[in-house]
Design goal:
GO terms for molecular function: phosphopantothenate--cysteine ligase activity. The protein is 38% helix and 20% strand. Bound molecules: ligand 9Z3. Ligand 9Z3 binds next to helix 3 and strand 11.
């Protein structure tokens, strides 16, 4: 039986994963990425001043694309603004975690929530002597964004890595997971990125722009191998893993989340429905379904604050149990 109908047999899945990575276009600057990861993890494992090792969470954010042409003009996209990942990153850092933020280029960034859509052009102005200054209504928001962001980077608590395609995303995720392996139970994966289910293998992809004169487009998409299994079994087996399940039909949401929890042996699956995702989520664990809601009495509250609080509590219990 193969991985598509529920029961996962190992050999075909391993072969699918191997073939995905073998045929993917090589990741640009892989060596540079691995070096950054190594330094970040080393720094947080032995922080200055003999502090105890920091917990490290990999937060994924934004949607992956599936290119249709090697010299890509067209692609299939997965919806995600990156809001969940960016906001969660801020709360994890506040809770004392170091965060590896793996995000889709151009999506929401941590500490930028209160800035206008085009911050560079809307927040700044040139004065007569050509100095650049912040425009009055944005002063506080810019100050907060810049100082919190710079503090997180300078303190060694935030490492940002970007992706666009499914190929880049999975290759970087694998490098992150393998770099985090030795952290054992101190490692967390918070997989909020919206990941493509189907892709066009690089070798069977058209090189040049597909021509519309050739008539209707007939294209075969292959299923993306389920990397969560590899993450859990091989890449970082001791890590605390949280994945997300997104549906538009609330009737099937919890059932699908429970299936994902069991199938990929996640510690938690956060179930959310597209239209209410900013108001509430349901956290599914082995024996509970916990509804987590935004505090509706506060205009600027978000669902990520109570969600991260819950996760940090559960992760602490997991770390304690693993030490016994
Ligand atoms: C999510 O469900 C995220 O919560 C959202 C966040 C993408 C809805 P925004 O970025 O939205 O704040 O606009 N992410 C996971 C989506 C996903 O693709 N899950 C897969 C699935 O549902 C499993 S990896 O099958």
């Amino acid at each position: 039986m193969d991985s598509r109908n529920g029961s996962v047999s190992e050999a075909p899945l391993d072969a699918e994963i191997e073939s995905f990575f073998d045929s993917a276009p090589p990741l640009k600057d892989r060596a540079g990425i691995i070096k950054k990861l190594k330094e970040f993890i080393e720094y947080n494992s032995t922080p200055p001043g003999k502090g105890s090792p920091r917990r490290v969470v990999c937060v994924t954010s934004g949607g992956t694309t599936v290119p249709l042409e090697q010299r890509c003009v067209r692609y299939i996209d997965n919806f995600s603004s990156g809001h969940r990942g960016a906001t969660s990153t801020e709360y994890f850092i506040k809770a004392g975690y170091a965060v590896i933020f793996l995000y889709r280029r151009g999506t929401f960034q941590p500490y930028c929530q209160s800035l206008p859509e085009d911050p560079l052009l809307e927040c700044f102005e040139c004065s007569d002597d050509s100095t650049i200054q912040v425009r009055q209504p944005h002063t506080e928001a810019v100050k907060r964004a810049v100082s919190d962001h710079h503090a997180a980077i300078a303190g060694g608590h935030l490492l940002k890595l970007s992706f666009t395609t499914i190929f880049e995303y999975l290759q970087i995720l694998q490098s992150i997971a393998m770099s985090m392996k030795d952290l054992g139970s101190l490692a967390v994966f918070y997989l909020a990125a919206a990941v493509s289910d189907f892709y066009v293998p690089w070798k069977s992809m058209a090189e040049h722009k597909i021509q519309s004169a050739s008539g209707p487009l007939d294209m075969r998409l292959v299923q993306v191998p389920k990397m969560l299994s590899a993450l859990k079994k091989e890449w970082a087996p001791m890590a605390f893993c949280i994945s997300f399940k997104l549906e538009t039909d609330s009737k099937i949401l919890l059932e699908k989340a429970e299936m994902a929890l069991k199938k990929y042996r996640m510690h938690m699956v956060v179930a959310n429905e597209l239209s209410t995702r900013k108001e509430e989520v349901t956290v599914v664990t082995g024996n509970e379904k916990i509804l987590v809601c935004r505090d509706k009495t506060q205009a600027d509250s978000d669902v990520e604050e109570p969600l991260i609080e819950l996760i940090v509590g559960r992760h602490s219990a997991y770390v304690k149990d693993s030490d016994l």
